[in-house]
Amino acid sequence: MKNKVLPILVASLALLLLWQGASLALDKAFLPTPGASFAAFVGLCADGEMWPAFRISALRVIVSTLLGVALAVPLGMVCGRSALLYRIASPLVAVLYPLPKIVFLPILVVLFGLGNLPKIILITLIIFFQIFVVVADAAYQLPQESVDAMYTLTRKRWAIFRHLLLPACLPSVLTSLRISVGTSIAVLFFAETFASFDGLGYLILDGMERREYADMFAGIIGMALLGILLYECLQLIEKRCCRWL
User: Fold this and answer.
1) Selection from 75, 47, 14 nearest residue 203 by Cα
2) Closest CA to 102 of 176, 191, 201, 181
3) What is the pTM of this model?
4) pLDDT at position 122, please?
5) What's the rounded Cα separation, in Å, for the pair 166 and 73?
6) Residue 185 in contact with residue 61, Cβ under 8 Å?
7) Helix axes 213-241, 199-209, angle to 10 degrees
8) Alpha carbons 34 and 168: distance in angstroms, whole number
9) Which pLDDT does position 89 carry in this prediction?
10) Rg of the chain's alpha carbons, rounded to an integer?
């Protein structure tokens, strides 16, 4: 545990010292010191402004992640184990996956308004394609001999998916999710500054527009904490669910 915590503490201290040095060197209002920023963060928490924004942003990312995984994992496994479906899906993914999904945000806002739904749909689309690609490839590359051996034992397709395909694809799924955390938070920030009146992104934008830069950085700290918590939770899930790695 110490071997893991110590490098994180050293890296965090180095970033804070770099931030402090940059703030003192520039001596500009738009770059407050870490002390002022964390004091603003504590103040927003005490005033009850931070927690509602943090809660709604976390809810959007978590719901989107669950939806993306629930859709991508079974579809990816089915397409990966069917040569016909894999040939059909591959060109579609080749066209749709590289598209920047963020450009669909104005369309989603027009269709579904300024609530949670357009943001959840947008992040779900991003996570879906990231998971689907790796799951389909992992299922496709699974040796047919392993599938045949499992089939002789159970004769049930569901058992093959449950006891063979899912464990084979799970490490790739969790790795993709950890990679997608940063992308999801970035998209969430854009969505909450473009078409929202709540969430951490709106809190950051509001602080910038009011020229309360300490509050702006407090919102950034909140969004960074959200990303760190999600990343660490996924690492914990990976350790619990993939003990054979």
Assistant:
1) 47
2) 191
3) 0.85
4) 92
5) 8
6) yes
7) 160
8) 44
9) 84
10) 22
Spell out a b/e string for 107-132, using b for 16 or more CB atoms within 10 Å of the CB, else e: ebbeeeeeebebbbbbbbbbbbbbbb
Contact between residue 202 and residue 57 where contact means Cβ atoms under 8 Å apart = no
Q: Are 192 and 202 in contact (CB under 8 A)?
A: yes
Residue with tokens 């949670």: 116
Helix axes 2-26, 34-47, angle to 10 degrees: 110
**pLDDT of 121 higher than 90:** yes
Which residue reads 């010292």 in tokens?
Answer: 17
Amino acid letter at 107? I
Q: How many helices and strands (H and E) does the chain possess?
A: 11, 0
Nearest-angstrom CA–CA distance, 169 and 77: 8
**Per-residue pLDDT at 3:** 59
